[in-house]
Amino acid sequence: MADRGASALSLPDDWPAHPDPILALNRMGSFDWDLDTGLFHMDAQAHEVFDVRPGEFDDRPETLAIRVPPHESRRLDALVAQAIKDGSENYGTYFRIRCRDGTLRWTHTQGCIRRDETGRPRRIIGIVRDATQELCDSQARADEVGQDEARRRQTNVVQATTAALAHARTVQDVIDVLKDSHGLTHLGATSLVVGLVEAGHIRLVAEGPEGSFVPGTLVTRIDEPYPMSEVVRTLSPRFIESPQEFAEHYPILWPHLTDLRITSAAYLPLIVQARPIGAMGLLYDDRRGFTSEERNVLVALGSSIAQSLQRAMFYEQEKDLARGLQQAMLPRTIPGVPGADVAVRYRAGFAGGSLGRDIGGDWYDVIPLPGGRIGAVIGDVQGHDPDAAAVMGQLRIVLRAYAAEGHTPATVMARASVFLEELDTDRFATCLYAEADLSTGVVQLVRAGHIDPLLRLSDGTCRCLPVEGGLPLGLSAEFGSLEYPVTTVELDPGQTLLLCTDGLIEEPGADLDDGMRALREMVCAGPDDVHDLADRLIDVAEERSGGDDVALLLLQRLGLAQRSGGRLRQYVAPGDPEALTEARHMIRAAVRAWGAGERSDEIELVADELITNVLMHTEGAATVTLRVLAGHDRRLRTEVEDTSSALPRRREAGESGVSGRGLLLVDRLADVWGVEARGRGKVVWCEFRLRARD
Q1: Buried-most residue among 52, 203, 453, 495 (CB within 10 A)?
Q2: pLDDT at residue 604, as a whole number
Q3: What is the mean pLDDT of residues 521-539?
Q4: How many CB atoms are located within 10 Å of the residue 115 CB?
């Protein structure tokens, strides 16, 4: 049985057949189009289809122009370009070529678009064949092919418009897609009007070409005699097939449209879940009537547009809600800062597909501190959701509280980290805290996993300030570290400190260093005024349309003429007699230079007593600060800060005692004095009234 079957089905030597002979038997030729080089290779059968000899064709598509009429060539180019743009894998169409004897012959082509792993088209491989016999070269068949091609073009427009609408976020984005050159105008419409239903009225959001607006139709009632109102009431499309029909049924509207020479119109209800959300009108100036196929295409298009508009409306509503919630979490006002100009900005970022729910955790804050200092904060809580915003609000409040209590910057950051851990939210946050003394320009910076700040100098140049950092807030328990080193810099008059979140420098696919470099260039080229500069930077972030939030804080120290008075500071370490001597010299020189000559001895004596008390009764160093306070009377304020939380006590000295008289002297000589808690330490201060300057 097996032998007999093998004999009956013996195979030829060239089995299986190569595709080329099979194509040739079906009068098909093949081509391979390299889109990178532009070369268009055809086999021998394809040469016959195009009626060109091998020696006449140089593998360039342009050479086929002698065989393909110009209008057919343009149509083919548009078809291929559209298929490439749509991401299609295949295309096919009929077209005519002109043979050597001048006759026209129908030809059919099909192509397969090959793309690389990035989606970029690289080659088109396909076939061409003589379609004359298939179409019988009859006028009836040609008309049918023309109708099919028209329907195909309309279908392509619907598909292309639907694909473009998938990327539209806002209502204006939807309108822009519809008005685009690849939108509804390909259906031959002269004008497009769109209205949305709002509280029993229809509000126009697209009013057609410029100059075509009809007065009184920006907002109309649904019961008024207009075609858009009618389709919203009836939930049915309205096709107007002649000017006479338009004038007869809508006599109020028609006189305003006569200059547009409208010959027909199609009004479509925009329905979502059996509820009208609006209406769309297409006005034509070159046709009368609509075929059943055209009506079906337009109704299908209206359904797609309605879904896109509903999605855009939800996006805008929730974006407004997100922005309102975010703004409620941020400081309502920024306090005035003597000696500085402060500008803050915030931009909400909304990632695609989220319908505006990306509420971020970025924040800024400016905190008045004891002694005329200020704290500047920039931070970013992990995540983009309502929980991130809620955590941000709590973290901002406690950080402000810790700073206002007088804690050192490192302590403020450490306590904020512990607080975030105790919230048990599984969130972490990055933060940068700067404590600035604007009278001296001394700025202490603490960084918790955040990006470094920038410093713009008085000459407009800008550089990055490297700040030694610690872990992001909320991770100290996991990694067992609460250390936040402090970096101290001096901010000269006219210089600007820039704090921001990473949304200002990050772009998808771009390196972080490149983003920081671009930001420095923008700051260098930006305006001198910090408010104008902040506007410029936030506008750039808006144009970039990134999905991340942006928080920005600019702090510019004002010039010497705008400061309230002088200020000097000296650090005195334990067991350092030279530092103590330098502090005494500084005090003596300062009080005389500031016009306190008549009280210089008293001020020197009190300051010396306070410094000595710190060195004798604590285990740390003393920081002495002198400054002039301006007001209705001039005062000189002396502050001595230490790291001990023990408050000084006034004691009566014995007859032979050598201590106990320090605070008695302070109380007797100073006009007023007191003690302030400063986190891990305290400050003992006193003030002396000075003679007014002439």
Answers
A1: 453
A2: 86
A3: 90
A4: 14
Q: What is the tens place of the pLDDT at every residue in 554-586?
A: 999 986 433 344 567 777 777 777 677 777 777
Q: Are 447 and 460 in contact (CB under 8 A)?
A: no
Specify the amino acid at residue 46: A
For the segment 330-346, the average pLDDT, to the nearest whole number, is: 81
Residue 539: phi and psi, rounded to 5, are: -65, -40
Rounded distance between C-alpha atoms, residue 325 and residue 335, angstroms = 22
User: Comparing C-alpha atoms, which of 613, 605, 672 is closest to residue 647?
Assistant: 613
Q: 3-state DSSP call for residue 218?
A: coil
The radius of gyration computed from the CA coordinates of the chain, to the nearest angstrom, equals 40
- DSSP symbols for 174-211: HHHHHHSTTTGGGGT-SEEEEEEEETTEEEEEEE-STT
| Dihedral sign of CA atoms 32, 33, 35, 38 in order | positive
Task: Quickly list DSSP for 391-450.
Answer: HHHHHHHHHHHHHHTT--HHHHHHHHHHHHHHTT-S--EEEEEEEEETTTTEEEEEEEBP
> What is the pLDDT at residue 366?
92
DSSP conformation class of 648: P
- Measured N-to-C along each axis, helices 386-404 and 409-422 cross at an angle, to the nearest 10 degrees, of 140
Q: Who contacts 10 (Cβ-Cβ below 8 Å, separation ≥6)? A: none
Q: What is the pLDDT of residues 426-461, one digit of tens each?
A: 888 999 999 988 877 888 999 999 999 999 998 889
Bridge partners for 93 per DSSP: 109
**Residues 550-570: b if buried by 16+ CB within 10 A, e if exposed:** bbbbbbbbeeeeebebebbbb
DSSP assignment of 98-153 equals: E-TTS-EEEEEEEEEEEE-TTS-EEEEEEEEEE-HHHHTT-HHHHHHHHHHHHHHH
The Cα–Cα gap between 404 and 644 comes to 18
Taking Cα atoms as reference points, which of 313, 295, 353 lies closest to residue 158? 295
**CA-based nearest residue to 504, from 664, 607, 380:** 380
